[in-house]
Amino acid sequence: MITKETITQAVKELCLQANINVRKDVTAFLKQAKEIETQDNACFALDVLIKNAEIAADEQKPFCQDTGYVTVFFEWGAKVALIDDLQKAVDEGVKLAYKEGYFRQSIVSDPLFKRENTGDNTPGLINFEIVSGSEVKVSILIKGAGSDNASNLVMLNPTVGTKGVEEAVLELVKQKGARSCPPLLIAVAVGGSFDKAGQASKKLLFRKIGERNDNPKIAQMELDLLDKINKLGIGPGGLGGRATAMDVFINQKPCHMATMPVAINICCHAVRTAEAVLR
Fold first, then answer.
1. Residues 253 and 196 sit within 8 Å (Cβ to Cβ)
2. In the chain, what are the domains?
3. Which of 168, 201, 228, 256 is the 20 to 30 Å CA partner of 95?
4. What beta strand segments (E) does 51-160 contain?
């Protein structure tokens, strides 16, 4: 049976894990990137990032001081009973993790006026989906302000096609990539609606570096965009070099015939995701 306490404990553990342990695919990329970089500044930046990840794991401390905001994706099996007050269960897990980990608390309750800190990094942002089965998958995404401020959602004219999408991504990376702590992971969600595109772009960040879309045309588009972005020369830390982006993920969903929402989710090298399956 899945209880509120089970959800709270899962959220707590996943928040701790995501903030402290750099994903294996990310560390592998950083080490491989260093081997092919030719510029001293780029090699220096990659060395710092690799060493930082090692220290964070050894000392069990966050590898980025901006421990961000917490987004939780639930894939809730239809055979599992729903619990009362899911938001409260999630927030309790976030609160416990951020206290135990001594993580920076960054959430303000009143964005327009007083901007007072909530003091415990709550509330968490919940995305909920009913799926088949008797399990609950909990996926945590933690994102800081640097890369989130660089992200964007545009409503393109449907006639612009793939070229228009590529131009929107490249222009955004040119403008804001250097100050978004590259190497970057770039998730592009096309279609859906104004609200759903952003949500879909967040979920794309759970894909591992090197994983391609099942659609061959989109997979090729991912590779083409990755190549073009890395030819911009922004490089690690914005100091120049080849490794501006670790990967580009693209997905599409049906949308209204008169729209083309495109959410461009820029994520810094601190890709903080963690997942668990509850039974």
1. yes
2. 146-270 (3.30.1330)
3. 201
4. 69-77, 125-131, 136-143, 152-155
Using DSSP, state whether 146 is helix, strand or coil: helix
**Which residue type, as a one-letter code, is found at position 50?**
I
Q: What is the phi/psi pair of residue 275, to 5°?
A: -140, 155
The answer to whether the CB of 155 falls within 8 A of the CB of 261 is: yes
Here the tokens at position 209 are 């570096």
pLDDT tens track of the chain, all 279 residues?
A: 899 999 999 999 999 999 999 999 999 999 999 999 999 999 999 999 999 999 999 999 999 999 999 999 999 999 999 999 999 999 999 999 999 999 999 999 999 999 999 999 999 999 999 999 999 999 999 999 999 999 999 999 999 999 999 999 999 999 999 999 999 999 999 999 999 999 999 999 999 999 999 999 999 999 999 999 999 999 999 999 999 999 999 999 999 999 999 999 999 999 999 999 999
Rounded CA separation 74/114 (Å): 32
Task: For residues 71 and 79, give the distance between their C-alpha atoms in angstroms, rounded to a whole number.
Answer: 24
Structure tokens at 182: 């590259």
Instruction: Report the distance separating Cα 69 and Cα 66, nearest Å.
Output: 9
